[in-house]
């Protein structure tokens, strides 16, 4: 006990460094990002719907095979028309993943609890040499 009292600052440093180590892991767990392998499993096993939130010209240049295009600024009004069953998993994709993360929040607000963003976006999809089609 005397050691703890005399060296309280060491204990504080240990707790602070430990929390800094765990923070990225906790942040990643709540982000809801999918790896490409997890996305493929959802598509094949659970019939997940892939929604590309890029602008139409980006979508035409290349997108995940079978994806539907709903630009981020139109997601709130068009997602319910594109995916009527809110129980289906929804995979949101953009070029690098930033817009898809924002789109996940919009989709969850609309009641799509199984909505997740593809980590790394279309760039990660291409890096994994998965099929990309052009419109």
Describe the structure.
Helix content is 54%, strand content 15%. The mean pLDDT is 90. The protein is an alpha/beta fold and 135 residues long. It is elongated and about 70 Å long.
Give a nutshell description of this structure.
With 135 residues, this protein is α/β, with parallel strands linked by helices. The protein is 54% helix and 15% strand. The protein has a 5-stranded parallel β-sheet with strand order 1-6-5-2-4. It has a two-stranded antiparallel sheet with strand order 3-7.
Spans where pLDDT lies below 50 across 5 or more residues: none
Biggest sheet, strands in spatial order? 1-6-5-2-4
Number of strands: 7
Q: Mind telling me the C-alpha Rg?
A: 20 Å
Helical content stands at 40-55%
Which structural class should the secondary elements be placed in? alpha/beta
Descriptive keywords:
54% helix, 7 helices, 5-stranded parallel β-sheet, alpha/beta, 135 residues, two-stranded antiparallel ribbon
Element layout with pairings:
Layout: H1 2-6, H2 8-31, E1 33-34, H3 36-46, E2 49-52, H4 56-61, E3 63-64, E4 68-69, H5 75-82, E5 90-93, H6 98-109, E6 115-118, H7 121-127, E7 132-133
Parallel strand pairs: 1-6, 2-4, 2-5, 5-6
Antiparallel strand pairs: 3-7
